[in-house]
Structures are given as structure tokens and as C-alpha cells.
Amino acid sequence: MARASALVEAQNTLTQPIAPWLQDLWNGLPFTDFPHAVLIYGQAGIGKYDFAVKLAAALLCECKDSEIRKPCLQCEACRWFATGNHPDFIALVPEIQRKYLPQVSLEGSQADAPVRPIKAVEDESEAEGSDKKEKRFIAIAQAREVIGSLGLGSYRGGNRVILVYPLEQLKPEAANTLLKSLEEPPPHTIFILIAARLDRVLPTIRSRCHLLQAPKPKRAIGLSWLQNKIANEKLKAISALEVEALYDEFGGAPFAVYESLLARNNQDEKDELIVGALATKNLLQGLAKGINIDWLNIAEKIHKAPAPILLTALQRWCADLQGLTQANGIRYYPKQTDVLKVLAKQVRLVKLMRFWKLLLQARRHEHHPLATRIQMEALLLQYQNIFSD
Predict the structure, then answer these.
(1) I need a labelling partner for 57 at 20 to 30 A (CA). Which of 27, 31, 180, 191 fits?
(2) 229 and 201 fall within a common domain
């Protein structure tokens, strides 16, 4: 059910208008003289991926009418792209992200275009039985297969587009392989790179790309888009107050909220977003107890969730604690204001700042194949200590 919905969503990406907060960025794209590589960066969950997919379609569109905005959705290239079969669109993504690509063939598709799939190739580090976190990275074998295919030339004789997402999850060897192609790009080949954290991208890669910063939406605009999306998709009823609470918890990222609601609507208990939402709820309940947190029990309850989701929630909780102790403000969890105010009076600010540095360090290695349970046990024990003398 969730997979089918993800595939349908991938197809709908082309027909949806550009998110209003990204419209100016789209209007400023240099389509007449497009660079060989662009790096789209900005906060996670604000629509960079959908923007990039539509950009790829526009760059592959073969419509000759200058009065029609690309992608035209009518030419043969657009039809192939919309059905996930354009041979000159290649995506370099981790295995767990492949289900969201329009490149995945839909059941019953009648498209007759030749397909050039880039599969998640296993290497020694990704053999059967290895840690599932390895699937969050773009493997060196994948990067080599993509780069190796570039010498063949494009099928259609026009542009060829390589989408790399998320760029931060390139392993070092894969990043070096990509860098070689960015230094000497093949003719008519365009790289679209997407990153949420520009500071985690190699400076040598950044310097060879045209940088496009995706802005975060203003609160009113983001909430309005989200409410319309919920209504149009006929998701399960959720009150405006609940939407606003989720919007704050996700740091003002409307696409991230929508994906979470979509996963909840599909009731797929194995979906990472569902697992993450339940774990986050348990985590916040534990954090609310301050020095009395049962850190061992909480770690047991939440360790199956992705580490990035847990670390983000923990970091946002501590950010609100800092906000109350230093500026008397809350950003992420306004529903927890009363609890946070009590904890802010108990916390030792110096220890809180030290703990914050630990969280920053943990975030830098959040995709490393470490045992999540051990990592969370250590962090939650440190969290307990920030309330003691």
C-alpha cells in the first residue's frame, strides 16, 4: 500500500505546481545556458527533491515551442519520464530511497522506451546480513556504474540528467568518483545534486557546482500549502491545531509533515516514518521526566527507529530548553511549554551546552552503521546528567 502510494506520488510530482516558496528559485533558473552541475541545498523537508525531479523533466523535455513552459508533459520525452522510463534520466540514490523515484517502473505501464536502470549493486560492505544502515548510503559500486555509463552517449541525442540525492550520503570513495566527472563533464550531461547540509558536502564538489539555495517557507505560506495538500489528497481528518503542532515539530518543513501524514494514512507499521513517529513520542515522554528519565527503558523502546529521526527530536528538545533558559522562547514543541519551563529551571546551563556539542557530533555521524541502542543509551544518560549538580 505504502509503496504503491509512493510510486503514484512520484508520478504526480510532474503535474503538481512548484511550491510557492520555491517559485522564485524556479523562475531564476538559467534554462537557456544551463550549467553542467547544480547543487540544490536547503533545509530537509521543504520540497527540494520534487523541485529537482521537475527540473530534470524540464531539462529532458523536447518541446520546440518556446511559448510553452517546460516540462510540457506532452512530448514523447515527457511521457517517458512520467512513466518512469526515460533512458537519459539516471538517479544515484541509496537503496531505501529508490521507491520514491519516478524511474521505478509502474505495473501495467505500456511505455516502450528502452530503460537504463541503475540498480542498487551490492559490494562486499553491503552483502546479505550486513547492517541495514548501509542501505542509507550511496555505494561506490553504484557511483562507478553511473560514471561508467556516461561514456556511451545519450539515447535521445539531447541532454542526459544525473540526479544525486542525498549528496551528503555519498561514501568518500563514491564522492571522489563523482568529483572526477564534475571536473571533466561529458557533453550534454547535467548533474543535479541535492543536499540538506551544505557543510557536509566536499568543498571540491561544491566549487564545481552552481549553487541554488532553496528557501524555507514562511509559516503562513507553508501551513496553507500543507492544509491544501491534506484536503486534496483526502488524508485522514486532522485538526488545524494538530497540523500546526506537527509543522513546528518538523521545524517548519511542510513536505516532511506531509510525508509523515501520508505514511500514517497508509497504516504501514514498517514504514520508517511511522516507526520514527512512535519512537519520537516515546522519546519525548522520557525527556519530559528530566533527571528521572528511565534512559535504559526509553532506549529499548526507540532503538529500532532511524538514528537521524531520534537525534533530530533530541536536538530540537534541547534547542527549546536553550531557548527558554536564554531567550524565553520555544520553537519546536509549544505543546510541551509547561513541561519545558519546569525543566528549564532545573537544567544546568553549562552542562546543557556541553550536551549540545555532543549532539552536534552525533549528527555528523548519524548515518554511520553504529548500534542505535548503544548510542541512544549513552546520549540519554548524558541528558539525565544535565539536571544534576
Answers:
(1) 180
(2) no
Residue 352 Cα distances to 251, 283, 290, 373, angstroms: 21, 18, 12, 22
- Are 235 and 98 within one domain? no
Q: What is the pLDDT along the chain (389 residues), one digit of tens a residue?
A: 444 444 444 455 677 889 999 999 999 998 888 999 999 999 999 999 999 999 999 999 988 877 677 888 888 988 888 888 888 898 888 776 766 666 444 443 433 433 343 443 334 333 333 445 556 677 777 777 777 777 676 777 788 999 999 888 787 777 888 888 888 888 889 999 999 988 888 899 999 999 999 999 999 999 999 999 888 877 776 788 889 988 998 999 999 999 888 877 776 656 677 788 889 999 999 999 999 999 999 999 998 888 888 999 999 999 999 999 887 788 899 889 999 999 999 999 999 999 999 999 888 877 665 678 899 999 999 999 999 98
Residue-range definition of the domain harbouring residue 88: 2-213
Overall pTM surpassing 0.90 (yes/no): no
Number of domains in the chain: 3
Q: Is the dihedral of CA 101, 211, 71, 224 positive or negative?
A: positive
Same domain? 47 vs 186: yes
187 and 259 together in one domain = no
Q: Find where cell 481528518 sits.
A: 237
Q: What is the DSSP string of 310-333?
A: HHHHHHHHHHHHHHHHHTS--SS-
Q: Are residues 204 and 230 in the same domain?
A: no
